[in-house]
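Supplementary Methods, section 5.1.

A reviewer requested that the exact input to the structure prediction be made available. We therefore reproduce it here, unchanged from the version used in the analyses.
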Amino acid sequence: MTMAELRDLLFSINNNDSFSPQELSKAVKGKRKQLFRDALREHGIDWKELLTRVANRMVVEVPDVLAMQQQDTDDGQMLPSPSRQPPSSCSSREFHTEAVCTLDGSKFRVLPLMEGKWSGEAQSYAGGLLEKRESTSTRLTWEPESKSWSLLRLLGDESGAAIVTKFKLAPVGHGMVSGTAEITDGSQSASWLRDATLTIREEDSSPASLVLQMHSSTGQLMVLESVVFLSASSLLRTSQLFAPFEDQDGAQSLQFRSVVVNSETKVA
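The structure derived from this sequence is encoded token-by-token as follows.
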């Protein structure tokens, strides 16, 4: 099997959501299957591992082969596949597949999927009871000049009051970004967010997901959030909110405040 044939097959696997282990077995049956296994083994990929990644819709990375794909790119952006499109604003970022990019040596698989504008509703629960409903809006934008992401979140209630939180998120490692909050708020309800630090970590899971942790300026955990991509255009965010607590002996600890469930769809 030639490098070009291996490249084309891996491209099909990584860019076709419906590609299954059965289809892979059909594509490389007979003598071709052994040649394919040998070619994979040369690049450190086990056949069983490949079948598992295909079954779980996980990206299959073979650096030498993916490097061949880069020869067909312009300014680091892969040519779009017929079925799925990479984020358009990827100047200065090197895309290995349509959902994997490298930024200053750090790889990102999930965060680019969140680029764009999302809106929906947030439901807050305290003591097991629905406390309130609020409208939500999230926008993640890639900023080529600073090589960072800008995350803008808006939370509005029925009275029209809104809390706007903005983060500039810079890479701090593979699949991880971090930044400090900037608050625009007409009341003092979001004072606890001021100077908070947000860290986002990609999870190696299926479906694609993110874990967010927000800490106060003193380092206390305030929010622990999971983001699960239900599809290319819908996601579910579940946030646990905490507050510092001091008992009668003066011992410091965290106290659970509430949980907020956000259901959002992509609108732009």
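The two ends are 42 Å apart (CA to CA). These observations are discussed further in the main text.
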